[in-house]
Amino acid sequence: MRRTLFNEDHEAFRAMIRSFVEAEVVPVYGEWEDAGHPPRDFYRKLGELGVLGVQVPEEYGGGGETSFKYQAVVSEECARAGVSFGGYGVHVNLVLPYLLKYGSEEQKKRWLPPFASGEMMTAIAMTEPGTGSDLAGMRTTARLDGDHYVLNGAKTFITGGVLADRVLVVARTSPAGPENRRAGLSILAVDTKSEGYAVGRKLEKIGLRSSDTAELSFTDVRVPVEDLLGEEGRGFEYLTHNLAEERLGIATSSYASAAAAVEFARKYVQERTVFGKTVSSFQNTKFVLAECATEVEAARSLVDRCIEALDAGELTPADAAVCKLFCTEVQGRVVDKCLQLHGGYGYMLEYPIARLYADARVTRIYGGTSEVLKTIIAKDLQV
């Protein structure tokens, strides 16, 4: 079906990203996976291209675009090549919206220029050992001491945590009330060079092996009060505000992964022969690819509608939950079927489909598990 989401500017951006990926990422991607992250200079290259600053306002050194469509293009082109930009997604899709909406003018002037150039990479630290999706149960604390907060605690599963220069840390600045466990949370933008800040284990994951995921710990880390993001005690409210965009970002990459899987499988079955015939000539192959293509088209339509809604300021948390739930489930089914069409070679890491398969599993977990999303959707249905 004809797609109307993108205009000429988006397609010119796509051509640049595709060329960059083919020249700068694909040839060395295996090295990134072995290291567990891209080299630090890679992000400076993205900054030089203007990719990190697309949505950063022009007065802070960015491109001044407000549309999510440019981030969607990056997701699609990375999936098309079977690669990832490491911590890029967290940097631009998760952290930037917080800085833009809740940062003071002084903070924006201080942080956004290096954010756009790649000189300052960012991450966000919410999840703690033992709390999972229960953010209200976090135990990391920040006690006000004069003109500093004293930060103590630990975080886990922090994407981009190894290379980050500044991390948005969610901490409890006052005790939770008996009637509102969500009260008393605040967001501190912590300089990772601070004394007492430590990066623990770089976690070994099933997939997403080019994206650094780490444990962090804070021991009497002194954070200047001017690095408090927004107002004290409103952290949970801020986190909720950005969940829709975060979940749409995951849905977009999931749809793109499923679309890439179909294309990888289509090409493979046309080249591979069994019993003297190409695998593509068997009816089962045709039917499986037809099923997958149909699901991908449905996911694409939903993603496109939600991107338009986000750009218009109309994407609701329930809409985003529907989109993420559907697209991640489609991704799981489609990638699995496409790997099956590769036979034994689909299980070999030298084939992109194997990487897509390993990377796909986490999308039904992070950014809100499928079970949490179903709860949100059911509540919106008033059942």
TrEMBL record:
InterPro entries: Acyl-CoA_DH_CS, Acyl-CoA_Oxase/DH_mid-dom, Acyl-CoA_Oxase/DH_mid-dom_sf, AcylCo_DH-like_C, AcylCo_DH/oxidase_C, AcylCoA_DH/ox_N, AcylCoA_DH/ox_N_sf, AcylCoA_DH/oxidase_NM_dom_sf. Signal peptide: none annotated. Residues 233-381 form the Acyl-CoA dehydrogenase/oxidase C-terminal domain. Keywords: FAD, Flavoprotein, Oxidoreductase. Its cofactor is FAD. Coiled coil: none annotated. SUPFAM superfamilies: Acyl-CoA dehydrogenase C-terminal domain-like (SSF47203), Acyl-CoA dehydrogenase NM domain-like (SSF56645). Belongs to the acyl-CoA dehydrogenase family. This is Acyl-CoA dehydrogenase. It comes from Actinomadura decatromicini. The lineage of its organism: Bacteria, Bacillati, Actinomycetota, Actinomycetes, Streptosporangiales.
